[in-house]
């Protein structure tokens, strides 16, 4: 039975949950539920919003300008590999803070069931994989997330911004903000926090299951911080740390396995030889328990000034960001990223909850930046150093088909605790392509993060130039001439490829389940867009491990022990989906 969509959530204080009450043990999740035929789209509008929730009503299509927000959800993963969610707020119907809350409330309500499934899968993975240490979420992790959330709200208030409306501070009220740009950034942070508030309240009211972490609040904080947790967990819990140097000496094969377990994603930016088209693409790596997906399209306030931002991105239930990351925006900026590891434990001492997490800064950067350089500058705003990524920002405003690439077409920045170097990499792209494969490019990040030391101990697998995917991209990327070529390279996993060194997990689209010993993780999706498509906020996407030249992944073909080892509640059994076109659906009629 569907949850009551008109019900209001009970009023909850933001920090009501204390760490000891929020921590519960992770339950074992078995085989996935059967996936029914995809239902028709469900569309609802939100109005009369307060901190307790919003009044929702079902709509037959686009709504007028009397509503605060409208959303459309299609539960279609079992049919096409992706669920789909669109939300648009109505400009001028309420303050930016109320609009953001309404957008989050609609998402939390309409997707509550899959949020709960994703939260259970996520908690089970971290609790059983060893990545999180002795327990998940530990009391220290819980305290960090709650402290960070509280600190961010305090900073918004200190900048003279009311959480209720998120309006940028006046000159007299912005004494707490160092510059007017800081005030604008805190206003954009406010919008993200209010959307998170709405998500929590909608999910909490509509979910008919117990919360994986003990509360709706901690569920949504944990899900949105999944990427950041890869540095938060070892920073606050010594049991989650890997002594990379000792492991390299005592058990080098295990060191490589641990490295692959923490590697997330392959990325590629490719300009065709005649400069006629510019492509960018991303393939996500993580546990196969994370293949419950939603492709999202947001049309929401950028900050409290009345400015707006439209975003389309690959995502997951309960996430207000991509995680992968793969974004296109109506600013004509696009961003993809791949993650790096922090192999130097001393850097983790710099991680503090009194900072903005990567997922929050990415949303703010996508909302405000008008260039790749500005995007990277915004990422430095109270940077946490967590989710240590290489970000590739493509400025499509700089691209004209069949003309030389303008400076600023591609900016690349990399984050690690205490570091965030950035540079214009257009000259490298002009030679044909920019690849990304979980190895830091900038010398400061590569050396201080510990890659230099590990390369000296273990060889080329840790190097930027000679890692397996570096060599595969160098061989394959120059051959890409069109969209079909991009599809092929981003799903590439060739049995016997000499550059993969005998491991399916070393390919551009890794399949850890095909290795011996097998591991249920690797590449589980790919997304591609281009200068032509992105201007319409359009991409093509495919969900599931690659089946290009290798068998399709199917849960029921695994042993029961293997299935039980990787929580995957809510997923289809077999992943043999095709590429799908992803584009936003108009939801709000223009005023007459």
TrEMBL record:
Pfam families (alphabetical): Phospholip_B
Keywords recorded for this protein, A-Z: Glycoprotein, Hydrolase, Lipid degradation, Lipid metabolism, Signal
GO terms assigned for molecular function: phospholipase activity
Gene Ontology BP annotations: phospholipid catabolic process
EC number: 3.1.1.-
Any one GO cellular component localisation term in the record: extracellular region
InterPro entries: PLipase_B-like
Keyword set includes Signal: yes
Keyword Glycoprotein tagged: yes
Signal sequence residues: 1-23
Family: Belongs to the phospholipase B-like family.
Function field: Putative phospholipase.
Protein name (record): Phospholipase B-like
């Amino acid at each position: 039975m569907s949850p009551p969509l008109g019900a209001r959530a009970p009023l909850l204080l933001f920090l009501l949950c204390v760490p000891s009450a929020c921590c519960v043990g992770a339950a074992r999740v078995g085989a996935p539920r059967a996936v029914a035929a995809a239902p028709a789209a469900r569309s609802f509008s939100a109005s009369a919003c307060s901190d307790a929730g919003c009044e929702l009503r079902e709509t037959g299509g686009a709504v007028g300008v009397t509503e605060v927000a409208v959303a459309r959800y299609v539960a279609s993963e079992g049919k096409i590999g992706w669920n789909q969610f669109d939300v648009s707020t109505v400009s001028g119907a309420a303050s930016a803070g109320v609009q953001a809350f309404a957008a989050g409330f609609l998402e939390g309500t309409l997707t509550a069931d899959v949020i709960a499934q994703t939260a259970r899968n996520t908690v089970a993975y971290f609790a059983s994989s060893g990545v999180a240490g002795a327990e998940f979420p530990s009391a220290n992790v819980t305290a960090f997330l709650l402290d960070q959330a509280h600190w961010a709200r305090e900073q918004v208030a200190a900048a003279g911004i009311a959480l209720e409306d998120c309006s940028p501070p006046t000159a007299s009220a912005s004494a707490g903000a160092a510059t007017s740009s800081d005030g604008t950034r805190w206003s954009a942070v406010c919008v993200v926090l209010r959307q998170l508030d709405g998500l929590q309240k909608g999910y909490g009211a509509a979910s008919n299951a117990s919360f994986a972490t003990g509360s709706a609040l901690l569920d949504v904080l944990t899900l949105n911080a999944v990427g950041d947790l890869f540095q938060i967990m070892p920073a606050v819990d010594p049991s989650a740390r890997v002594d990379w140097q000792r492991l390299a000496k005592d058990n080098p094969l295990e060191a490589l396995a641990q490295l692959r377990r923490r590697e997330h994603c392959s990325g590629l930016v490719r300009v065709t030889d005649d400069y006629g088209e510019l492509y960018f693409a991303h393939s996500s790596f993580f546990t196969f328990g994370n293949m419950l997906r939603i492709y999202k399209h947001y049309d929401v306030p950028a900050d409290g000034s009345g400015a707006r931002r439209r975003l389309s991105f690959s995502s997951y239930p309960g996430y207000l960001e991509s995680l992968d990351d793969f974004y296109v925006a109506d600013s004509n900026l696009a961003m993809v990223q791949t993650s790096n590891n922090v192999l130097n434990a001393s850097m983790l001492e710099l991680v503090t909850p009194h900072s903005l997490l990567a997922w929050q800064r990415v949303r703010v950067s996508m909302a405000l930046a008008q260039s790749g350089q500005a995007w990277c500058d915004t990422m430095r705003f109270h940077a946490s150093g967590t989710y240590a990524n290489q970000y590739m920002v493509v400025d499509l405003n700089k691209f004209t088909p069949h003309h030389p690439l303008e400076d600023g077409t591609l900016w690349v920045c990399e984050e690690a605790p205490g570091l965030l170097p950035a540079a214009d990499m257009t000259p490298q792209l002009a030679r044909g392509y920019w690849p990304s494969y979980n190895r830091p490019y900038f010398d400061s990040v590569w050396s201080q993060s510990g890659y230099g030391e590990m390369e000296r101990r273990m060889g080329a697998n840790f190097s930027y130039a000679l890692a397996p995917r570096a060599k595969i991209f160098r061989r394959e990327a120059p051959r890409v001439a069109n969209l079909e070529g991009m599809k092929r390279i981003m799903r590439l996993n060739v049995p016997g490829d000499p550059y993969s060194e005998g491991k399916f997990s070393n390919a551009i689209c890794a399949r850890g389940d095909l290795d011996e010993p097998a591991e249920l993780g690797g590449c589980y999706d790919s997304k591609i867009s281009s200068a032509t498509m992105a201007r319409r906020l359009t991409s093509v996407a495919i969900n599931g491990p690659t089946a290009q030249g290798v068998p399709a992944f199917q849960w029921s073909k695994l042993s029961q022990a293997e299935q039980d080892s990787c929580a995957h509640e809510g997923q289809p059994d077999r992943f043999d989906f095709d590429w799908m076109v992803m584009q936003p659906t108009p939801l709000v009629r223009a005023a007459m």
